[in-house]
Each structure stands twice: as structure tokens, then as C-alpha cells.
């Protein structure tokens, strides 16, 4: 196939943007796509098709003898050859005047999408079709673009992408909410010759050894949690971005998180302008200003104890929380996180130095003996976006902490050994990728950021 003369609809809009679209005036071009809208007046017809390359459709003008264009119903695929005309004075900057067309794939009465507003709940039941709607067409393009810039950012910064295993016998979170894996239910240890094999909840433990060799690494892949939670922020299968880098302390980690997130959000907004315009108009009118502030303003850094004092003062002044018994050691809920970000600091905050008793075993123990070098990035509307820490690099401290938690030390001996053979300070964080998609798109349910959501009591094919 000769691609030199093959254009996508995105190519045309790009030429509008760089003011070179006039080069194609009168040129004969061919486009294929699925029908978004079709209206015929009896003498002239207007067919809008989308080829998936961008959010906006191509308008095709056709005459009364064009039976294929006239027959194209919503969702039907067509291929149209025609002459391109630039129309700067019209709503659309160009249109294709059809000279020949073919109805490639018709639709019948079973096609589930109609020219009317359809609920997200219904669309989740037909995930094989929902990307053809405006909302999800935009969501999954933004998702793809965010993933691209995540990889670009880390590679530009010298990070190596490490593929950590999906099957594991270690639980990074230590909460036991995992999906067990075995080939034979009657012989669960036969296949791997090991107990407690499950789907990974995080790639962190497996990527840390690579950080101690290469200095800067990251993993980006699917993770799994067997939490029986039906909230709008939890899924059983989701993707995690987890960078890990050596010679880094908590302040370095915060610097990396902020620089990374501002980069990927800024670049994605630039690349997906049509999609972002749609979200601002139809999903969340405050989204542009909120993302402007996210990219442009420094993230505040707040210690956990300071946040507890702020929340206690709020309760004293009459603010109602569902969980109002606020004291040191409380694992903050979404209502507390959103109060801090939306009403107090009015923007993202790094919340640092949590009590060690509510954080994972591997976090660096602070000199006060009761807190660890942990950090959560909290943002308005979302709550927790990232969680990370400086890792405990001292063998004896880490071993003592694991013994306090009555962990299976032999199962983690490989991890402990990293601390007695060339240990160095290192830090890392985990970003729930779908929560980043929620942040950028304004979507308020994690199920609507996943191509095929897998959630508690909710999974279609």
C-alpha cells in the first residue's frame, strides 16, 4: 500500500492547525470510517464519519444518486472517494464532496447505539461498543496518550522499563487481598511447587533490585486487588505506574512525582485538544481551570500530624465527617483527603510522614520511632492519586519491623538480602493509572476509564 497519499481525518485537522490545509484544496482523497450522523434533504446529503484517528468527524457532502451514502445508518461503515474542499467560513474547516462510495458494513436492528443520550451504566454492559460513543471515544484516546507520555517521560529521564511478573508469591501490601492462582484446585501447590501464588498487587518488590543496579527504573502494567469494594474508585484489575530510583530520599521522590505528573498532563492536553474540549463542554466545565492549576501551581507539602490538627479543628468548628474521631493513627478516608485538598489547601498536596502502624513494612522508619518516610499525593475530586515512600535501607530495622508484623520472613529473605549486600537509599511511588485518567478527563467512576472493567460483582465477558 502506498501511504504517501493516504490521509486520516486527524491529518486534515493537523493541517488546519498548521495552516497548510489549502494544499489539499481540490485533491481527490479516499476515507473509510463508521457513521456518526447522516441527513439527506432530498437533493443533498451530509454524512459524518469517524476513522478513529481523532475525535472530530469528517463531513461528506453527497448527491441524490449516491445510494451507499444514503443507506449509511448510525454505526455503518463506509468508504468514500471524493474531492476535498476547504471551508474556512463554515462550522467545519473542510468537507469531502463524494464522487463514489461503498457501504462496507451495514448495521441491523441489533445495533445497540442510538441517537440519544445513553447512560454510562448501560454502556458498561456493552464495552465492545461504547468506544463508538463520543464520551468513550475521547476517554480511551486520552488513556492511550497518557500512557505514551508516561513512557516518554521516564525514558527521557534515563529510567529503564522493567517488566515485573504478574504471578508472584509475595504480597507487597501485606493485606492478603489477593487472587490466588493454581492449575488444579485439588492440588494448589502442584504447578509451581509453592504455596500462596497469586496475581500481583504491585510490581514494587520485584523492581527494587533493578533500581539498586540501574539506578532509575520503572514498571507499568496490570495489578490486581481482591477487595470486595463497590466504590467508584476501586477496581479488581487496574494498571500501576511504579518508578523506583536510587540515592533518593523523600523530598527527591516528591520532586519526581510533581515533575512527572505535570509533564504527562500538560503533553496529553496539548495532543488531545479536541477530546479535552469535549470533556470541558459535556463532562466537567471546571476541568480546564482545575488542570491549569494542577500544571502551573506548586504542590504543597504537609505533614500528617499537621493534617490531623487541621481536621480536628474542623470538627471543633462544626464540620461534619462520617468518621469524626480524628486522632494520630487514623487512616484518612476520602472525605478527609478531599476536605484538605478542596477546602483547605485548594489544590494538590503531598501528605508526608505517616504513622508507621498504618503503612507498609518496607517504608523508611523516621528517627521519632513512630512515623515513616511515606508520602501520598492527594488531589481535588480524586483523593489519593499516588502513594510512595523512601524504602528502609537498614537490614536490622527492616527485619525487626517484619518480625513485629509477624510476616513470613523466609518468603521475603530475598528482599531482605538486598539490605545487607550493597544497600543504598532508594525511593519509589505507585500511581493508579486509571485515577490519572479520571483526573484528566473529569470522569468520576473508575469503571469508565477501563476498556473492560473488572470490579467486585461486575464483569462483562
Task: Write structural notes for this entry.
By secondary structure, this protein is of the alpha+beta class. The chain is built from 13 helices and 17 strands. The protein has helices spanning 9-17, 67-71, 120-124, 134-156, 204-214, 250-271, 273-283, 287-296, 304-316, 334-344, 395-404, 413-417, 433-441; strands at residues 28-40, 45-50, 58-62, 77-86, 94-105, 160-161, 167-168, 198-199, 216-224, 237-246, 300-303, 349-352, 374-379, 383-390, 426-432, 454-455, 458-459. The protein has an eight-stranded mixed beta sheet, sandwiched between helices. A hairpin with a 3-residue loop joins strand 13 (374-379) and strand 14 (383-390). Helix 4 packs across helix 7, helix 4 (134-156) crosses helix 13 and helix 6 crosses helix 8. 35% of the residues are buried.
Secondary-structure map:
Layout: H1 9-17, E1 28-40, E2 45-50, E3 58-62, H2 67-71, E4 77-86, E5 94-105, H3 120-124, H4 134-156, E6 160-161, E7 167-168, E8 198-199, H5 204-214, E9 216-224, E10 237-246, H6 250-271, H7 273-283, H8 287-296, E11 300-303, H9 304-316, H10 334-344, E12 349-352, E13 374-379, E14 383-390, H11 395-404, H12 413-417, E15 426-432, H13 433-441, E16 454-455, E17 458-459
Parallel strand pairs: 3-5, 6-9, 11-12
Antiparallel strand pairs: 1-2, 1-4, 2-3, 4-5, 7-8, 9-10, 10-15, 12-13, 13-14, 14-15, 16-17
Helix pairs in contact: 4-6, 4-7, 4-13, 6-8
Amino acid at each position: 500500500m502506498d501511504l504517501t497519499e493516504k490521509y486520516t481525518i486527524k491529518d486534515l485537522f493537523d493541517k488546519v492547525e498548521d495552516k497548510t490545509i489549502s494544499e489539499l484544496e481540490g485533491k481527490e482523497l479516499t476515507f473509510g470510517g463508521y457513521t456518526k450522523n447522516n441527513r439527506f434533504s432530498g437533493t443533498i446529503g451530509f454524512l459524518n464519519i469517524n476513522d478513529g484517528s481523532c475525535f472530530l468527524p469528517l463531513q461528506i457532502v453527497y448527491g441524490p444518486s449516491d445510494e451507499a451514502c444514503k443507506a449509511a445508518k448510525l454505526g455503518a461503515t463506509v468508504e468514500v472517494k471524493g474531492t476535498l474542499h476547504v471551508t474556512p467560513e463554515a462550522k467545519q474547516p473542510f468537507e469531502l464532496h463524494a464522487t463514489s462510495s461503498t457501504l462496507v458494513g451495514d448495521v441491523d436492528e441489533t445495533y445497540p447505539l442510538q441517537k440519544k443520550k445513553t447512560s454510562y451504566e448501560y454502556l458498561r454492559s456493552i464495552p465492545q461498543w461504547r468506544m463508538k460513543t463520543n464520551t468513550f471515544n475521547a476517554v480511551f484516546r486520552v488513556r492511550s496518550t497518557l500512557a505514551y507520555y508516561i513512557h516518554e517521560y521516564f525514558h527521557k529521564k534515563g529510567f529503564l522499563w522493567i517488566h515485573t511478573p504478574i504471578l508472584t508469591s509475595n504480597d507487597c501490601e501485606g493485606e492478603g487481598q489477593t487472587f490466588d492462582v493454581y492449575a488444579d484446585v485439588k492440588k494448589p501447590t502442584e504447578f509451581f511447587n509453592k504455596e500462596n501464588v497469586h496475581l500481583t498487587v504491585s510490581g514494587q518488590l520485584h523492581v527494587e533490585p533493578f533500581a539498586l543496579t540501574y539506578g532509575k527504573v520503572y514498571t507499568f502494567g496490570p495489578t490486581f486487588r481482591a477487595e470486595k469494594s463497590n466504590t467508584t474508585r476501586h477496581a479488581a484489575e487496574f494498571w500501576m505506574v511504579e518508578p523506583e530510583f536510587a540515592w533518593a530520599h523523600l523530598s527527591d521522590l516528591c520532586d519526581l512525582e510533581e515533575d512527572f505528573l505535570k509533564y504527562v498532563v500538560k503533553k496529553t492536553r496539548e495532543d488531545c485538544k479536541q477530546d479535552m474540549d469535549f470533556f470541558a463542554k459535556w463532562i466537567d466545565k471546571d476541568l480546564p481551570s482545575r488542570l491549569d492549576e494542577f500544571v502551573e501551581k506548586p504542590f504543597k507539602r504537609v505533614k500528617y500530624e499537621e493534617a490531623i490538627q487541621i481536621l480536628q479543628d474542623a470538627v471543633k468548628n462544626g464540620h461534619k465527617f462520617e468518621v469524626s474521631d480524628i486522632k494520630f493513627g487514623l487512616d484518612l478516608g476520602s472525605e478527609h483527603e478531599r476536605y484538605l485538598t478542596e477546602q483547605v489547601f485548594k489544590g494538590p498536596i503531598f501528605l508526608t510522614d505517616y504513622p508507621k502502624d498504618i503503612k507498609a513494612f518496607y517504608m523508611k522508619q523516621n528517627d521519632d520511632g513512630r512515623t515513616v518516610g511515606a508520602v501520598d499525593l492527594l488531589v481535588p475530586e480524586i483523593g489519593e492519586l499516588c502513594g510512595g515512600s523512601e524504602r528502609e535501607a537498614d537490614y536490622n530495622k527492616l527485619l525487626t519491623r517484619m518480625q513485629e508484623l509477624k510476616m513470613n520472613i523466609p518468603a521475603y529473605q530475598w528482599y531482605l538480602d538486598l539490605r545487607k549486600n550493597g544497600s543504598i537509599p532508594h525511593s519509589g511511588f505507585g500511581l493508579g493509572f486509571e485515577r490519572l485518567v479520571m483526573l484528566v478527563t473529569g470522569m468520576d467512576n473508575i469503571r469508565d476509564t477501563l476498556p473492560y472493567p473488572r470490579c467486585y460483582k461486575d464483569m462483562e465477558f
